[in-house]
Design the sequence.
């Protein structure tokens, strides 16, 4: 018997049912959400970590720059400090566009921001009263940042004052015992014990002349030449044979550090060169060219003096820069007090650039909280800034050149 085939053949079932497809889609969505959430959280932590690292690196660099400045404070003139240099009113004239321009004392205008309130602002009785000292702190008003005043040169070229035997009638040369060791372009200070003014001068003689045995003529001129100060002149200082010429450094080497250091409105640590050495053309000797950014992300700077109160060569007291003899206006006139400031404690408050989702700051920052109450400082953190991370960098810096001075 023949078997007839069935023309209707049922096709085998292939693919997914609708229910299976929906279940797979749900599982896939859950996996995508889980992975996305993990990546998002990871990126958030990464951004926070990166921002914190940037803040730490910027803070470390800022602390290094301040440490370097303060360790060199007084280089070139500390040993002569008690012989008429500490507390003298520095007079300096600089060639700007070919014209001799008085840059110190600053009698007609305040220093540029953030130093515009230093010593009370503009005027001969305010900013114009800045005196020579290795290190000074101008305390900020109402919790504002402090300003550091740091002065120093090249210790290898200085700390050996030369007696000025006399001047010359043309008022541009000095007569020393000898000029060996001096170089063309050297910068020094002419001072006399008991005289308020001291003058910044630049050597303008050939190196061959200066190195000649028996040569006693020191020519002055160049970028910095100051013929007179507020109360005296170069000729008067040189006349009686008791004044000193103290070499500080060299204009070509650019190794003089007469700086103001502070924090500006953009939260940047900046330094201002009191001698305005930088700049060329239209920017030569301007306030803008004298201002240098050191580090960003700096919210505030605070400092206290480390004072050797018992004259044993160590800092045994931390003194607030706004108290008594240590207020800057008083301290500048006290050479004996200046010489016993042997260290500085400096605090930098850093701020990250990342806005966190939730507040990470619980309140204001207490500065110098381990010191007696009268030395405490407080940095108020605004509500909108509490979602930014902050870090306090506290460093102690010895003033090496003042530690080398006799203790009594």
Sequence:
């Amino acid at each position: 018997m023949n078997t007839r085939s069935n023309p209707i053949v049922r096709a085998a079932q292939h693919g997914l049912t609708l229910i299976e497809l929906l279940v797979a889609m749900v599982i896939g969505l859950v996996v995508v959400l889980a992975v996305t959430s993990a990546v998002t959280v990871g990126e958030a932590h990464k951004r926070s970590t990166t921002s914190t690292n940037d803040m730490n690196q910027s803070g470390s660099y800022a602390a290094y720059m301040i440490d370097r400045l303060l360790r060199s404070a007084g280089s070139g003139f500390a040993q002569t400090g008690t012989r008429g240099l500490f507390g003298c009113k520095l007079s300096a004239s600089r060639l700007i566009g070919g014209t001799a321009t008085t840059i110190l004392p600053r009698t007609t205008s305040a220093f540029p921001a953030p130093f515009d309130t230093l010593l009370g602002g503009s005027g001969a009785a305010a900013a114009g009263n800045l005196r020579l000292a290795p290190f000074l702190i101008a305390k900020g008003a109402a919790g504002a940042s402090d300003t550091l005043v740091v002065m120093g040169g090249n210790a290898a070229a200085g700390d050996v004052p030369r007696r000025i035997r006399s001047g010359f009638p043309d008022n541009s040369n000095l007569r020393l015992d000898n000029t060996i060791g001096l170089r063309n372009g050297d910068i020094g200070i002419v001072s006399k014990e008991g005289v308020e003014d001291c003058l910044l001068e630049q050597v303008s003689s050939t190196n061959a002349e200066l190195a000649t045995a028996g040569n006693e003529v020191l020519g002055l001129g160049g970028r910095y030449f100051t013929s007179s100060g507020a109360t005296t002149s170069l000729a008067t200082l040189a006349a009686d044979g008791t004044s000193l010429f103290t070499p500080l450094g060299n204009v070509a080497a650019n190794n003089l550090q007469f700086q103001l250091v502070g924090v500006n409105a953009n939260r940047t640590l900046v330094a201002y060169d009191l001698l305005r050495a930088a700049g060329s053309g239209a920017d030569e000797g301007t306030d803008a060219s004298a201002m240098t950014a050191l580090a960003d992300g700096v919210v505030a700077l605070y400092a206290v003096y480390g004072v050797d109160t018992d004259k044993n060569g160590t800092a045994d007291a931390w003194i607030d820069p706004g108290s008594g003899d240590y207020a800057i206006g008083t301290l500048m006139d006290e050479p004996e007090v200046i010489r016993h400031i042997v260290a500085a404690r400096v605090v930098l408050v850093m701020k990250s650039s990342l806005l966190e989702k939730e507040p990470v700051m619980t309140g204001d920052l207490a500065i110098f909280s381990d010191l007696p109450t009268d030395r405490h400082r407080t940095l108020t953190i605004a509500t909108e800034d509490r979602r930014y991370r902050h870090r306090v960098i506290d460093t102690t810096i010895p003033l090496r050149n003042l530690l080398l001075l006799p203790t009594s």
About this structure: The radius of gyration is 32 Å. The helical segments are 18-71, 207-211, 234-239, 287-290, 328-331, 335-338, 400-403. The chain has one domain: 55-404. Residues 55-404 form one domain.
